[in-house]
Amino acid sequence: MNLLSFEFIIFFVTFLFIYWLPFLPSLARNQLLIAASYTLIALFSLQFALILLGYSLFIYALANYGDRLLTKKQIYLLLASVIFSLFIIFKYYAFFQESIQIAFSKIGWQIDLPLLILLLPIGLSYYSFHSVSYVVSVQRQELPKARLTEVILYLCFFPSIIAGPINRATLFIPQIQNSQRALLEPKRALFLITLALLKLFLFSAWLAVNMVDPVFNDPSGYSSEQNLIAMYAYAWNIYFNFSGYTDLVTGIALFLGFRLPINFNAPYLASNLKEFWTRWHISLSSFSRDYIYIPLGGGRKGWIRTQVNVLLAMTISGLWHGAATTFIIWGALHGLGVIFLN
């Protein structure tokens, strides 16, 4: 169900009425949120909901009981292996299949790997990141072990499961556990939702229809100046689209009594790429810094190693965005830009 559809509006208004009934305890509200989240995911695919449930049970067991049998390093390795396997199966298999076959064909070997057609589960990219945040926070003793229902809700929370932002476990799980939950800043929530609608339906849609799509569909039919304008229009198109969605889900979360992290901060006012990535998709760039760049060594092992770590983190971020060589190149170029254009 699309969060901008009329059906979702009816669903959400009805849900809010039940959710804020005065006699409901916070535990019941959490259970309602779990039911609503899984209902919305199951409307896309029951299989997606079952994958998420199975994954949530695995994360709960790993984080809460894994230390009885495994070392911290083994827990991290098992978590990384499971996430890597899920991404390979559901997101990257076709890309690697084609790349491997092309590579072998160039040296005269004809290899036909089996064709595997699977749909990418809704929210996999985000609930896998959330799971990393929870497992690592528990292992570092930054966060007490949460209950099963709290872990399930943290991983399935429907406003942010599809396109973020990424919620840190240390900031979000305490909100789940808060017994004094209340409606937060309703005027701001309404403003954010209104702003989201303007960004998505007016600015982003207008730019796409009038300035981006016609040129991108037939670039040779337009002048070089029109192609250049279309490129800049596309930059604003994706900004209004992405930041508009963030505004929408932030407003929805406030109505549910939750605060989501700030994800955009005037990114096109940045003076260089490094600053840009502190303003654009902030929850992802800070996640990449804390869970990829710093574990790789960060800036602790000399200037050259620091630049290599930056490049690796940005390249991995590019691959996360999509299973294609273009995304890898895009991530690597941004890594080089962060290194050389600051």
Can you put this structure into words, describing what you see?
By secondary structure, the protein is an all-alpha fold. Helix 5 packs antiparallel against helix 6 and helix 9 runs antiparallel to helix 10. The longest helix has 35 residues.
Notable traits:
14 helices; mainly alpha; 342 residues; 0% strand
Elements, N to C (H/E): HHHHHHHHHHHHHH
Mean pLDDT: 87
Radius of gyration: 22 Å
Largest sheet: none
Number of helices: 14
Category from helices, strands and their pairing: mainly alpha
Q: Tell me the total number of β-strands.
A: 0
Please bin the fraction of helical residues. over 70%
- Could you name the ranges where pLDDT drops below 50 across 5 or more consecutive residues? 113-118
- Shape designation: globular
Q: How much beta, percentage-wise?
A: under 5%
Query: Span from first to last CA?
Result: 42 Å
Q: Brief overview, please?
A:
Helices cover 71% and strands 0% of the residues. The protein is mostly helical.
Topology readout:
Blueprint: H1 6-19, H2 26-44, H3 46-65, H4 72-106, H5 124-139, H6 148-156, H7 158-161, H8 169-177, H9 186-217, H10 224-256, H11 273-276, H12 282-293, H13 303-321, H14 325-340
Helix pairs in contact: 2-3, 2-6, 3-5, 3-6, 4-5, 5-6, 6-8, 9-10, 12-13, 13-14
